[in-house]
Amino acid sequence: MSGPTGREPRRLTRWWRRRSLRTRMTVIAATAIAVSVFVAFQVASELLDGELRDSWKKQLRADSRVLAADAERAGLARVPLPSYPGSGRLVRVILPDGSTRTPAGQPALPPVSEQAARVARGAPADLMESSDSEEGYVVYTLRAGDGAVQVARLADDSPVNRFGFGMLLIGLCCVAGGALVGRTVARTGLAPIDRLTAAAVRVARTRDLDAGIPDEGGGEIRRLIQSMNDMLAALRDSRTAQRLLAEDAAHELKTPLTSLRLNVELLIRLDRRGTLDIALPAESRTRLLNDLGSQVAELSTLAAELTEVARGDVSDENTELLDLADVVVAAATRARSRMPDIEVALDVTSVWVSGRPAALQRAVLNLVDNAGKWSPADQPVQVRLRAERASAVLEVDDAGPGIDAADVPRVFDRFYRADSARALPGSGLGLSIVQRVVDAHGGRVTVARSARGGALLRVGLPAAAPPAVSRPGPGRDPGLG
């Protein structure tokens, strides 16, 4: 468990995160100026204190030389000492016997230190020292005759203190001004963000995605506004696509639902009248039930394909490295069970791709189902898979009438069905799903005419390197062709 010391930074962090960006910028600006003023004050104070002390020491040395010269001429015991002016410089003479002379009325200096006594006894050096007394004197000792002279003064910090007080006042003014400037800069700099926020709130409230956000400012603000407008355009396109999907789905569901409802109502009405066996002989009843089964199957297929289209690119399936030949064989097996009257001839080789297995199998199944609708009963649907340079190429062709040139540009559109296909079962979504799956895998699907005169649909997917240890591909499957 963390103690109070660990909780305090977290509280400060939470408090800081709850502040507005404008408040943060104001606090940062004021803090930066306060730190700058404090650092400048410290540096300036040290420099000023150093300059003052150097000035005092130079003056002490100069006064000591004058007094020492007088003492050597007149003697230490008789040299006239300047009277004490009441403040500032203090003087003292150290006689050979260790006694001292000071001017009348001058405050007492600290006792002669051992180092100063050695200078007076003839040590070949002068001495600058600071006393440890409460007054805080700076004392300079210089050899003169048989003794020494000393000049001292109080270490006065009042100029530095006055300078520090002035700097404090200036610093407070700078911090206040910095906070004001930071607030103004924040308000000016964030004005485009405020307008952008207001526009986004207006769009969220009115749900009007056509109302774009005015492009203003430059740099990051302009890029943000452009990104917001791009997002609104994407949402607008998505909503339009959803509306079109709902309208198309309602239109496509109307016909099979109407037919199914009429047939069921006919059966219910005849059953209630007790004339079901008379009005519908066994052969007609069987045909009607078969129609009902076909209509239910068509509705089930349409519902499944609508669900697939509505999901878009959203999928919980993970992408994995897989052998596309396995996917093709599995899809062909399912197609054969759904269309037992149609042969599916496979000619596949092992080609590895990176993709979603279920989505790819659905795309292959839709291709085979589409070919099976057109292929004559005595002509198989041919499915070929091969590696071609850096691609996996899948071809599905039939021996049907083929696709008219006028229909080729729209063959992958949702709910589009050629005039010749309207009598056949289907929703017009199968090839649209194929194109979406192929696009999601970075591939391409095209339409051409096969050598047998029917349609040839070709899918190209980026091939992947096979795993280090892999089993051989299924090759040609004679059991399905």
TrEMBL record:
Q: Which keywords appear in this protein's UniProt record, sorted alphabetically? A: ATP-binding, Cell membrane, Hydrolase, Kinase, Magnesium, Manganese, Membrane, Nucleotide-binding, Phosphoprotein, Protein phosphatase, Stress response, Transferase, Transmembrane, Transmembrane helix, Two-component regulatory system, Virulence
Annotated EC: 2.7.13.3
Recorded GO MF terms: ATP binding; phosphoprotein phosphatase activity; phosphorelay sensor kinase activity
What SUPFAM superfamilies does this protein map onto? ATPase domain of HSP90 chaperone/DNA topoisomerase II/histidine kinase (SSF55874), Homodimeric domain of signal transducing histidine kinase (SSF47384)
Q: Origin, by domain of life?
A: Bacteria
Q: Cross-referenced CDD domains, in alphabetical order?
A: HAMP (cd06225), HATPase (cd00075), HisKA (cd00082)
Topology versus the membrane: Multi-pass membrane protein
Q: Where is the HAMP domain?
A: 187-240
Give the required cofactors.
Mg(2+); Mn(2+)
Q: Extract the InterPro entries matched here.
A: 2C_sensor_his_kinase, HAMP_dom, HATPase_C_sf, HATPase_dom, His_kinase_dom, HisK_dim/P_dom, HisK_dim/P_sf, Sig_transdc_His_kin-like_C
Pinpoint the Histidine kinase domain residues. Answer: 248-465
Give GO cellular component annotations, separated by semicolons: plasma membrane
Task: Give the transmembrane region(s).
Answer: 21-44
Protein location:
Cell membrane
Give the main EC class. transferase
Q: Which reaction does it catalyse?
A: ATP + protein L-histidine = ADP + protein N-phospho-L-histidine
**This protein's name:** Signal transduction histidine-protein kinase/phosphatase MprB
